[in-house]
Amino acid sequence: MRKTALLFVLLVVLAACSSSGSPKGQPVTTDASTPSEAYSFPAEFLFGSATAGFQVEKGNTAADWWVWANTQNRIANGDHPDRGGPDALAHVDDDVALLTSSGQRVYRFSIEWSRLYPTREQFDRDEPDATAVASYSRLLDALSLAKIVPMVTLHHFASPSWLSDPTKPNDPEAWERSEMGALFATFAARVATRWGHQVDWWVTINEPLNAAIGGYVQGSFPPGQILAIDRALSVVKATARAHALAYDAIHEKDTRDADGDGRAAWVSPALHQRTFHPYDPESQADKDATAHVQGLWNRWFADVIVFGNWDDDFDGKLDGANDRTSDVTLRGRADYLGFNYYSDTLVSASRGIVLPVINAAIYQAAMPTERPKTDTRWDIYPEGMGTVLDELKAYGLPLFITENGIADAVDQNRARFVLEHLREVSRAISRGADVRGYLHWSLIDNFEWASGFCPRFGLATYDPDNGRRTERASLLVYTRVIANKRVEQRDIDTLPAYANGTTCP
Ligand code: FCB
User: Fold this and answer.
1) What is the mean pLDDT of residues 12-33?
2) CATH for 38-493, options being 3.40.50.300, 3.20.20.80, 3.40.1380.10, 3.40.630.30
3) pLDDT of residue 259
4) What is the pLDDT of residue 15?
5) Which of 21, 124, 194, 437 holds its CA 20 to 30 A away from the CA of 276?
């Protein structure tokens, strides 16, 4: 570990010890009569929540996802973000009030490329849409006034429709277009130039692997291709290169340190980390497939942008003709590793749809496990948070949990989910992970891509008629954790056991 990192961990540990009176992860007595274990967090740990532009804004008409949402049978129940969404840009004060009243200190949201530059002509002339500039400025000003740290995502699944046309799925779209990476870096540079004085935390691309799978393997994202593996892999590679270009562009333009921590820009993608288990625990073939898929999914992208190691054929080894190590155009392009963690995965070498290249079938929902399920039928698996933190710790960079959450329309499991995941975060910190913050997905219910509005991920909900926000009970539990900077085992124990999700099969 580098000296500075070591020093930081030491300071963090000291700070946590002095605020809780006990080392993290150790039992402390919180009340004279009832001892309870407590899992604490460093004083400067950032608690907050996340959203994404297309999921919470209305009228994002120049996004490929808007075209997609207007296409019949693409979105569950015919939902559309313009019909009954939370309309975040019209409710900036309400959302900032939610953040403030719960003590959240960081808010991740996206500045939408297609909203800022709805046409190619505007982009080429650098004439951003004035209303869009005003809207994002207003949000950033409101956050700044409330002393909430902004984390800005530059690409969260949606691309401008002038670069991605879902009506022409056989053409190269978005990241497949050779100009996309350079244009994205230009966009990043412009955003960093305009708002860098207010923003230190940047997410370049959200979940590049999921975007490739959604668009080219499952067909649930534009351009809706199914099992187009070669195109999916070319997208993954293009996003890795585009990230590196955007990283350089942001650092070139954002030289202003907004929060006074000595660094003007912290740049990372938001990776999506998962845990993986063999479908059949007795099968050696399933175990081998699991190790292969786990390596690709959890490490391929990070290996490129941290070490410059390029596994061109995705075989998990660096011995192919086009593989390379320590590529100077790619390595060292992460100041921290941002990642989303939701759940576990089962991997089979033979059962189900065995995908080429990875030679495995993947299960992520409705898995035959004993674990409780969310409304989207994902396993609730808090231990996995600790596993992925331990894995990422090996990269030697600060970590930031850019998303973690649960579809839970009736809010029966969210409080326990938050506490149990944060307990794992605290434990991982005590094992040496340098975790800077946790963002719950999501601040508010929103448009959950192809699943429409049914999955409810919000700490708060809203009235679709007038946008009025209402806090869920679980937000109050999160509020208490934030205030105390620790999770009490006693609080977990008083909550009801998990119940299986009820809606949105
Ligand atoms: C993540 C996405 C986010 C949201 C959550 C539930 O994969 O980044 O936009 O859809 O899942």
Assistant:
1) 38
2) 3.20.20.80
3) 87
4) 32
5) 437
